[in-house]
């Protein structure tokens, strides 16, 4: 069995960070090495929600060294990271990725560049944001982000599909193999779009937009986890993208049916194994400007 390291926050209540990512990967047959970067009482939707949190004191790199000391790092097929609390955590994660790839050259680093909410609210300080862009994005094999994070990382503005793809290609030029833009809302007012851009092609999946009473958090963590688990399980990238989108749509639909704004990953756990829906993956034909 191949393992995945998940470096993310943990919430006491709700499904964000490791609380959103770990269980789906386990349901997909992955042994998850869970490394919590901080603990929060609940999913932080306002500044006040950050008053009840505790940062993990032991460094990420130190904990990864502990895993390496028992010769388990070589069995890890991927490392997935999400929200990071400090520049020190970014620096430690950089070292952790280097250690993993030294032990397993084929291991993937999946960077969920969690910096902004879908409403453009900034989650992290400017120095952490700059460190993520400078140190982590260039070493990632897969980058998962929303449209605001894409704009900030690439210094781009976009209003068309072609412009979004071009911005993603800027990240690919840094070394990534796949860029996934989730919750892309500029292409249609009635649909949510998930876009994947590879070195050769671009693909998208669309579904009807859901409205929730509060901001829905943890979606990027979920997408990163399911995509990573699919790849580690040997699924080809396009099929992994399809499975990720189908599972995510199923969870969103169940969450809406429960009239909740916390992702219903437990109630909808079958979606990670055998999704209810089969949404079409649309290959985007290149235009003259691309």
Please give a structural write-up.
The protein is of the alpha/beta class and 290 residues long. The chain has a single domain, classed as 3-Layer(aba) Sandwich (UDP-N-acetylmuramoyl-L-alanine:D-glutamate ligase), CATH 3.40.1190. The protein contains 9 helices and 10 strands. It has helices spanning 18-27, 60-69, 87-103, 126-136, 147-154, 161-172, 219-232, 237-257, 270-273; strands spanning 3-13, 31-42, 53-55, 76-81, 108-112, 142-145, 178-184, 191-198, 202-208, 282-284. It has a 10-stranded mixed β-sheet, sandwiched between helices. It starts with a strand and ends in a 6-residue tail after the last strand.
Query: Unreliable stretches, pLDDT < 50, 5 or more residues?
Result: none
Outline: globular
Q: What do we call the CATH homologous superfamily?
A: Ribokinase
Could you name the CATH topology? UDP-N-acetylmuramoyl-L-alanine:D-glutamate ligase
- How many angstroms does the end-to-end distance come to? 41 Å
Compute the number of strand runs: 10
Tally of discrete structural domains: 1
Number of helices: 9
Strand portion: 15-25%
Largest sheet: 10 strands, mixed
Radius of gyration: 18 Å
Helix percent band: 25-40%
Strand/helix succession: EHEEHEHEHEHHEEEHHHE
CATH class: Alpha Beta
Question: Strands of the biggest beta sheet: in what spatial order?
Answer: 3-2-1-4-5-6-7-8-9-10
CATH architecture descriptor: 3-Layer(aba) Sandwich
**Class derived from helix and strand content:** alpha/beta
In round numbers, the mean pLDDT is: 89
EC number: 2.7.1.35
Organism: Vibrio comitans NBRC 102076
GO cellular component, one term: cytosol
GO molecular function: ATP binding; pyridoxal kinase activity
